[in-house]
Amino acid sequence: MIEVSNLTKNFNSQPAVDDISFGVEAGEILVLLGTSGCGKTTILKMINRLIEPTFGEIRIKGKNVQTQKSEELRKRIGYVIQNIGLFPHYTVEENIGIVPNLLNWDKQRITRRTLELMEMVGLPPDDFRKRYPEKLSGGQQQRVGLARALAADPPIVLLDEPFGALDPITRRQIQKEFKKLEMLLNKTMILVTHDVFEAFELGVRVCLMDQGKIQQIDSAKNMIFTPKNEFVKDFFQVNRFQLELKVLTLKDILSEIEPKESSCDNIETFEETTNLLDVLETIEQRSLTQSFFRIKDTRNGQVVETTSEAVIAAFYKTKTKLSK
Q1: How many domains does the chain have?
Q2: How far apart are CA 244 and CA 225, in angstroms?
Q3: 171 and 275 in one domain?
Q4: CA dist., res. 93 & res. 98, Å (int)
Q5: What is the pLDDT of residues 24-70, one digit of tens each?
Q6: pTM of the model
């Protein structure tokens, strides 16, 4: 879907992006991760032709973006930014409908699409369609920004620190909701963040950058357990234990889990795709009096009953194997 080849962008003869190449498959979410100034946002702006590369090439569906009219290109790419950028004198409904209007959709179609998107992002139209941005919370504004980016149903969505302006609790809530939105199914997305947990929560693959260069592009699990170089290893050293739990799911450790039996009926049940950090945090947050829970094993249709202690033991066994 997206192919980036030998891409370079110089500012004052200094490379902000330094000869990078990568591809993004159709329907994939690629996260660009790194500290401020490493070139993440510059890459997005070059894909969207907000700035032009010094060298290199970007192709979307095989076509060089530099041969296309920038205005037409942007109409086919959703773009979500950190400060949201809602027009203050437009209502929620009008903000969401901007691109469909530019594409000359008829009014009924725009209204249908706008109301549909508002429902999808958790903003009931009867309550929110006539509100202005100043009457919305940060989380509500971010939902409007996402709906606006998706209004014309673009195949590609670029997201630049989309949740960066939100408080930690709202940020995590919206990250969870983001993954479940049906309107994002089959979208090809590139998301920029400096937040490691956000990158691992949302990305199919993660591209770790430093000083304009790609250090490693891989799954979150491989980033943690098989880092390509010392920079990658050191980058994830802070909160490493939590990150190790984050990148492993119950399915990853299921063969190592020792089943336990409980006489209790009211026991938490987790899908095998749940990551270990979410499992342990859920048990702790709900102040469960015992650590028993169940895992749905889709391989054989069985439900495995175990404890958080058994999961931790299985985690260490799995970690040892992966780190060899």
Answers
A1: 2
A2: 8
A3: no
A4: 9
A5: 999 899 999 998 889 999 999 999 999 999 999 999 998 999 998 88
A6: 0.85
